[in-house]
Batch of 3 targets.
Target 1
Amino acid sequence: MNTFTFTGKAKTTLLIIMLAGLALIGLGALTFGGGSHGHDDGHGDSHGQEEQVDAHAVELQHEDGTHDVTVDDAHAATTEEHHEDMHAEETHATEDAGHHAAGHETDAHAEGHDSHGGEHHGVVGATPVTAGKVLWTNLWVIVQMLFWMAMAAMFFLAAHTVGWAGFHIMFQKVTLGIMSILPVAIVLGIIVFIFGHHDIFIWTNPAAMEASELMASKSDFLNFKTFGIMSIAWSLIVVFLLSRWWAKLKAQDEDPDLKHFRTARTLGAITIVLVAVINAFGVWHWLMSIEPNWYSTMYAWYTMASGAAIMFAVTILVLLYLQSQGYLPNLNDSHYHDIGKYLFAISVFWTYVWFSQYMLIWYGNIPEETVYFKERLGNYPIIWYGALIINFFLAFFVLLKRDAKRNKGVLIFACVMIIIGHWFDFFIMVVPYGVAKGGMGLMSVGALLLFVGITGFVILSALSRVKSLDSREHPYYHESLKHHI
């Protein structure tokens, strides 16, 4: 069969998955315990004192330029003032109570500094964790997964078109279907940002910006106006590129003339450049600014690698589903083998960037940098190590052998696990800064089911609109048909 029909059974299944996701999100919100704090130090009312000390440390830090001394000075100054007040009291009982309070204050400050790098987390340390914060951060996780998966698909199609590749022609419409998720990701992202921007981005809180001179120095970039203008610009560009690719592939289905392929190569070259630019700038605003006092020069590569791994895994799963329904009968083991090699290679590349980023920050041992890993390793160790184990060790050893990339059962297992692994990865990028503990739960699983349902529904809906599912009118179709390795 050369035209795809999105059957009622498939629609029903995907809708049930999405409804189940929404139900889990609702159940998670209703049963959310609350009462905890972002970066909770376990001393309740000492949060206000900790925040006061950290704010004083910020002022000293920018005067003296030394992180360790300033925090100690701030703490010493606060302790000295507290002791003077205690000695002014005339009763021994009051003095004892004062000493007890000072001890708690000391513990709260020491723990807050040790866990969160002093000024780096002063404001967030006093932010209560609510069901809304857990909800919006987890929804932002799947927004980013959807967007960067689709961007990776756009880059894949553009790069192979520019490179005169032929093996992918038979399934390039699946790549186009994954790209079609972009408008959905953008709309969902707008909704999540409107309702949850304070829960996701600390820089949207004026008090937080004023409390930190470091964050205030970035206010020209971290503000609603700049964020909105740049986000709208990137969104309009990717939607325009998506529309051009749809028009170009549709024209090739109706007319096999080489002129369409030539213009598609031009479009591909433009797409590669724009995707690279959007990848860098988009990551700065949509992901890295979640933790505005921390940055990494490898973050854009890291994010795109994670999105590409999800994209290749989804591509394989969709192709296996289509073949199980009688579509794409000419797709052979060599096609799966090559996509499997891409999945294997991008998993290794992701690990290379992961290790490079971690090793350089570990070796530098600068508190403002290492706190990023400390808060994640300390509060979400299972998810942290789970992402590494799945995305590298499992992907490497499962997909290493040639036969594994041709075995459908092995591919299904590997692809499902890799999607879960990179869900962990995006979770680690987004949630821990605002939700020190308790961010993974029913709402997280519900958000993942939403991702699965949205991905499947949009891709299959897009495929139902194409005239030629296997692109047999394309001038390179026969190269893809006879692809054997």
Target 2
Amino acid sequence: ILKTYRRLGVKECFLDNWRLYEEFFDDVRYIILARDPRDVMLSVLDYGEHADWHKKMWADRSDEHIAAQFSRAWSHQLDMLNSSNCLRVRYEDLCRGKVGFSAIAKFCGLDFDEPGSVSQSLEAFPWRAWEIERHSGRLTESAVHRWKEETDETRLQRVHSLAKLMSDYCGFWGY
């Protein structure tokens, strides 16, 4: 594959096998992307409204279950941060332009222009059309701290519950 692609990008939510990349690639670099758990919970609930499988897998589960799954991923990310070449990025800083593509490109040693838009990566999944509409082809300020604008009390309870259950993560990232 490296004869065709000089760089291989991998996006994973759950990182059980992250060390495998280091066995096969000489210069693995990780971007650890954090997001406020309160906004994560809103995304979980929003996805559940658009995909039954996602609702069953996430939104219909208890806050404790969701926190346990995300905390499991966070433990892998902490291992990565402590043992590998990593760039720490808060989603909120990315959306607000405080961390630009140029900083990411420099960290990764990339020599090409900006990547494709959010819309381009989602177009293959028709059930995600609502996401394209929301983000209008880009990451935006509107994706940051959405929980502060939430008015539904049930959703707000879940939002704050997840943050409370993930206090170590919140402390590390400053949420």
Target 3
Amino acid sequence: MATDDLTATAVYASGNVIVQGNLTVNGTTTTVNSNEVSIGDAILLLNADETGTPSQNAGLEIERGTATNVQFIWDEVNDRWYTSNNINANSFIGSLTGNADTATALATARTITIDGDSDGSADFDGSSNILITTTLANSGVTAGTYGSATAIPTFTVDSKGRITNVATSSIDTNLDIAADTGTDTVALDGGTLTFAGGEGVNTSIVNGEVVIAAEVASYTNKGVAAFSNTDFTVTNGQVSINEIDGGSY
């Protein structure tokens, strides 16, 4: 009997069932007890009855019998894919956020070496900070103290500011002094050079300068004198009396 509608409490078929048109199931549960399912559609649509703002997670869950099921779910709250177990892939293309347990580049510790004017090295595998202690290259200068009371040090400095040579140059420790008569020496490391005045001459130290001043002449002291040009003539240091008045007798 041919009819467009088939109404029954249950439909059983012992052989194949072929539906030539569309198949719509309005129930709440659809169970397929098949070991192999072949679907021609290239994209499966899940959560097809969602019409408003999305609020439900959707994805795939695998029954594992006595073991815990695993899921591959779209997490609607966090807007990302979520899996309940690990993912193993030969490669990944795209950006990653998070921490990796291992990194191939640092799986083997690498040695970081400093070379040049200072040397040092340390192994680094990313597991902790490293400290590189450097040792300065020998400049060729012998360690020690240079210079003394009788010698001053001289240095040779290269373009990098390193001292490459040290020597000393002797210095005189005495100052030779001489006058119109007599000679002597004064020690530069504690000696005193004294400027002594003489008859008609005074000496003094003022603000680090030696001041030599002549005394004014008197009847009892030789020194600097002034002459009146009325009674005396002074030429090149020579004094002449202009007139001598012998007086009346």
